[in-house]
Amino acid sequence: MLKKIKETIEYLESRISIKPEIGIILGTGLGGLVNEIDILHTIPYEFIPNFPVSTVQGHHGQLIFGMMGGKPIVAMQGRFHYYEGYTMQEITFPVRVMNFLGIKLLILSNASGGVNPDFEVGDIMVIDDHINLMKDNPLIGKNEDEVGIRFPDMSHAYDPALIEKAFAFSVKAGIKLQRGVYAAVSGPTYETPAEYKYIRTIGADAVGMSTVPEVISARHMGLKCFAVSIISDLGVPGKIVEISHKHVIDAASAVEPVMTRIIREMICTEQA
User: What is the pLDDT of residues 231-260, one digit of tens each?
Assistant: First the structure.
């Protein structure tokens, strides 16, 4: 892993002029956040050594370096998923690279199905905990001590101070925010009604197919994490309807400007 990381870092550092402090991973239908970035460099994934290539509609597949909120950032416009056939280590490799580029904070976004009956389509949920139902973990295998410790603590996978800062901003800005637990499944099928019920019963508020592997790897390396999930459909009895990937993209895109305000605030007020 270290050899591959160093190869990728060498390639990227020869082509960029900034040292990013914050990393951003943009989920399904949420790539428009890049319009808020003063872009200095755009590098397609297929040109980057050891990088996977995104195969999913709504994920553009490029690494963007620039300035946002006065901070140097690196953003993944398009992420990788377990259901695409990648290993957990391949999915999280870009997080490893961002860490070695120098970021201290990882901000993630996704679209998810809400299983909390108090949620509505279009709600934004700040993730305060997660449940890994993907039946795999990116840390399985030989541990690289230079990367992180063998048994990382996950009691505060999502930074409590950043969560509170987001809610303080939401009150000031008049933005409705939800807070809850995100359950990650492998996909690519959407859940059955019985699966929605099970996921709610075990304590989740929303369910999706990403984010958790990246957060596990980020915390393995000591990075702070902040994540938001746009509720694009509902897995609540009486509100379950047939959905498609386009439906998810459209629902997420509609709320993206509000999510962008939250992420910009997180970046602007983050201490170096």
Answer: 999 999 888 878 777 877 887 788 888 988
- Sign of the alpha-carbon dihedral angle for 86, 90, 92, 97: negative
**Considering only CA atoms, which of 21, 22, 69, 17 is closest in space to residue 43?**
17
Q: What is the pLDDT of residues 57-83, one digit of tens each?
A: 544 689 999 999 899 999 998 889 999
Question: How far apart are the C-alpha atoms of 61 and 47, rounded to whole Å?
Answer: 11
For the question of whether the overall pTM of this predicted structure is more than 0.85, the answer is: yes
Share of the chain above pLDDT 90, in %: 78
Which CATH number is correct for 2-268, 3.30.200.20, 3.40.50.1580, 3.40.50.300, 3.30.450.20?
3.40.50.1580
User: What does the domain layout of the chain look like in residue ranges?
Assistant: 2-268
